[in-house]
Design goal:
This protein is an alpha/beta fold. It is 36% helix and 26% strand. The structure holds adenosine-5'-triphosphate and magnesium ion.
């Protein structure tokens, strides 16, 4: 138990199918994520990482267990309240970006803010600031189709941050990227961590894992190993070793 847990799961379960086809995708997970902590979750394909992230982000309902955000239970919330929590408190970065093709980079970032009731002017300002932070100020009027994979993912990260979420959840944020784009996105996440954002990142990339505060290994829907990683110097060292 951490006093300042932003996100907490207890006895979390998700089952699919039944009888002989029953899959225990998430099988009794306990997790406390502290404010400002960066947690990386690794494990073999099919071990339940995405399912866990979807439960933590309120995108899917659990079969059992409890979930809370900043001390407030959300596994029992109505759809309406859950939708509001997702919009205001959670930033989700999907592996496949999920940008709206017809909207520019800036409009994609503004959209969740507008849906949350932020004025168009303030939403525009936030989007411009965030695109600047992710190094895409000069691409704000581009459609996603005119951006590289790494640039699209950076827009998706900016969008995830626009409502100033309590926690950012990212599912394989470098999964579809070539190595240069991966390095960009890796640096971006390391920057978020150093700026005090709370992060839960599912990844196959050992370099992302190495820049987190805590590394959790999943197998068959459960946590089987947990490592606390050391200080910032080692992290910066590992980043410096990334090259171009
Ligand atoms: N909608 C669903 N219906 C039935 N089974 C599902 C469903 N979604 C996931 N599963 C099963 O649950 C298990 C966990 O899936 P999940 O997508 O969470 O794995 P993962 O760790 O994210 O894998 P990967 O690394 O390949 O993305 C898998 O065995 C998968 O087949
Ligand atoms: Mg997955």
């Amino acid at each position: 138990m951490t006093a300042n847990a932003v996100l907490r799961a207890a006895g979390l379960r998700k089952e699919y199918g039944r009888g002989a086809a029953l899959v225990r995708a998430v099988d009794g997970v306990d997790l406390d994520v502290a404010a400002g902590e960066a947690v990386a979750i690794v494990g073999a394909s099919g071990c339940g990482k995405s399912t866990l992230l979807h439960l933590l982000g309120g995108l899917e309902r659990a079969s059992g267990g409890e979930l809370s955000m900043a001390g407030e239970r959300f596994d029992t919330m109505s759809e309406t309240r859950l939708a509001r929590l997702r919009r205001n408190a959670i930033g989700f970065v999907f592996q496949g970006f999920h940008l709206v093709d017809e909207l520019t980079a800036a409009e994609n970032v503004e959209l969740p803010a507008l849906l949350a009731g932020v004025s168009p002017r303030a939403a525009r300002r936030r989007a411009a600031d965030l695109l600047e932070r992710v190094g895409l100020a000069d691409r704000s009027r581009h459609l996603p189709s005119a951006l590289s994979g790494g640039q699209r993912q950076r827009v998706a990260v900016a969008r995830a941050l626009v409502n100033r979420p309590l926690v950012v959840l990212a599912d394989e944020p470098t999964g579809n990227l070539d190595s240069t784009a991966t390095t960009d996105v890796l640096r971006l996440f390391d920057g978020l961590r150093r700026n005090g954002h709370t992060l839960v990142i599912v990844t196959h990339d050992s370099r992302i894992a190495a820049t987190s505060d805590r590394l959790i290994t999943m197998r068959d829907g459960a946590f089987v190993d947990e490592t606390r990683l050391g200080g910032g110097a080692r992290r910066l060292g590992s980043l410096a070793g990334l090259g171009g």
